[in-house]
Each structure stands twice: as C-alpha cells, then as structure tokens.
Amino acid sequence: MKLTDNVYVIGGGSLGYGISSPYDCNVYAFELEEKVILIDAGSGMGEEDLLRNLSEDGIATERIHCLILSHAHADHAGGASGLKMRLGIRVLASALTASIVESGDEERSSLSQARKEGVYPDGYRLTPCEVDQIIGEGDGVGIDSSIRLQVIPLPGHSADMIGLYDPGSRSLFAGDAIFEAGKLAVLTTRDFSMEQYRLSIERLSSLEVDHLFPGHGAAVLVDARASLLAAQHRFEQGLPPESIV
Length: 245
Ligand SMILES: [Zn+2]
Prior knowledge:
By secondary structure, the chain is α/β, with parallel strands linked by helices. It has a single domain, classed as 4-Layer Sandwich (Metallo-beta-lactamase, Chain A), CATH 3.60.15. The chain has helices at about 45-55, 75, 80-85, 95-105, 110-115, 195-205, 225-235; strands at about 1-5, 5-10, 25-30, 35-40, 65-70, 90-95, 135, 140-145, 145-155, 160-165, 170-175, 210-215. The structure holds zinc ion. Belongs to the metallo-beta-lactamase superfamily. Class-B beta-lactamase family.
C-alpha cells in the first residue's frame, strides 16, 4: 500500500495494517530512484504476504537493494534470513542487532520471554541471519553515492534500536522507538531502559519530521512532529509514557 510519494507499507500484523502475518511488525519499502530499500523484515511467518504485497504495489523484486533492520526483536528481524535468501539482498543492522541476529540468540532477542508470554506460537524460532554491513551513529545508507537515510541510535525499547531519517522528505522510520500520538512500547525485557528511552525521545524531539513510519500501528503522514513532542512532553511532566502494549 502506497503511503507517500516514495514509501509503501508491504507488511503489518495485528497491531498495525493487518496485511501480513499477525506476528509481523510494519514492513516498509522506501523508493530511492530506481531502487528500493526494505525496512524491517517481519517475523518470517508472513514472507509470502510481503512478496505478494510488493507485487501488488508494482515493485519488482529485482529493484530491491537491501534490507535494514531496526532491532533484533523477532517481529522485526525473524524474517530477515528468508528475505535475504529469496531476494538475494544484503542485510544491514547495528552491531548489537547483528550480534543477536547472526547467532539467533533467543535470550538476547527476548524471544524466549515473549514466547513464554504467548506473544509468539510455541514452535516459532528465530532463524539466524548473516548481516552484511554494520551501520551506526553518523552513517548514511543509500544507493551508490546517493545517500539518503541517516542512522540514529535510539536505545530504550531495546538496547540495539536504530531509527532511519530521510532529511529530504523529513521522514522517520522509527522501529519501536515511537508511535502515533507519541505512544511508546514499554516492555519488561532485560534490555529495556526507560532512561535510555527518555534520552532517545529527547533526541527525536529536535528532529524536523513530517512523516513518521513506526514499527506498529498507523503511519503518521501529517505533522508527525506533534507525536514526537507529545512523548517528550509526558517525560518533561514526569508522567509515565502511554504504551501501545
Ligand atoms: Zn521491538
């Protein structure tokens, strides 16, 4: 489904667009000239849905340049190995995400806890995936010399989270760092940190953002900065953040 001039949503589960496996995060396709960058992979259980949605949006798989993972939680990274194999694409992630995804570590990805809590089916496993390029603070991602997406570390929801910001279209791909109306995703996992979350939101609140593409729920296509400021405002007032989970 086309959301803006150059952004499509091609996957989304029960907390979002409902166009792929219920266990999937939102999966975005970002068009950059003739190429397309995928942002997040979903759980892997909706792989066929993602490919069908790409096709229905008129995006030929040959145009897909790479896949960037926002963090290692299974609803975002579980599908990476399948997509890498099916599409023959490179996978980019932060060093911390890579260390979890490459080993398929279900403790550090918090999958073992989430599975116990019934968030995923019993038999679901994190399929390890080799990461081709490590990205971090100050890096840009693009096609050849056309760099568009800036990497912003956003720890809090998880220690390994990154966001991707396109200053040209003032778009933020936020992973699970922030959602519509300034909601956050507060967890009880081992690497969740409210203090880190607060600092990440503070950082985001100074960014010029028109379009917010979160990992769950609806994208915010008008005045997305209001969502960032709403989250920042609650922290400033000492109020607990509103959470989507
Ligand atoms: Zn997450």
